[in-house]
Amino acid sequence: DSGVTQTPKHLITATGQRVTLRCSPRSGDLSVYWYQQSLDQGLQFLIQYYNGEERAKGNILERFSAQQFPDLHSELNLSSLELGDSALYFCASSASWPSGRQETQYFGPGTRLLVL
Amino acid sequence: GDSVTQMEGPVTLSEEAFLTINCTYTATGYPSLFWYVQYPGEGLQLLLKATKADDKGSNKGFEATYRKETTSFHLEKGSVQVSDSAVYFCALTSNSNSGYALNFGKGTSLLVTP
To answer: How many CB atoms lie within 10 A of CB B16?
Structure first.
């Protein structure tokens, strides 16, 4: 158990809909990262938050957004869903950002999204 | 930009065989290198890491050495077990990667048979 929790575990929805994925980092971790894992694209970095502020963006679509709340949990919002958004979405957390190059990121179990 | 290249899988080995999974990288700056493992139906777990050249990471019988001269971080294990069946991902973070997000290879699936 990494200490990172994600809900829900599975999500089935229809095209055009909007969903919210939730992540709670390990106790004391200030950084949260979101990744998408799909068969064709592999594991891709989406976005990072550190202590409530956005720090870095990767291959995140404009239809997707995220935020980190004062209690440090994070939510990833996916809107106008398309079939191609079906994937496994992982959240990871690490202790700090300035020394982040060496930091270990701890991954949650993921949310499997299926868009029909 | 930064990238990681892993050997294509799947790799099938008999129990107690020697394992090597090749990983090479391209990065500007000074990357840290990681191996993560994903067991069926689970999230990713850190297997080992190395943060500077010539460092050796090791865990659970797995080893990898950070070779700057060959830009490689090959994963090895002397005697694999059925329980090692999983997908293995090589990854890096570097100074040039804003936010130090992990940049993953495509993963190598390993199946160990009794």
So the answer is: 10
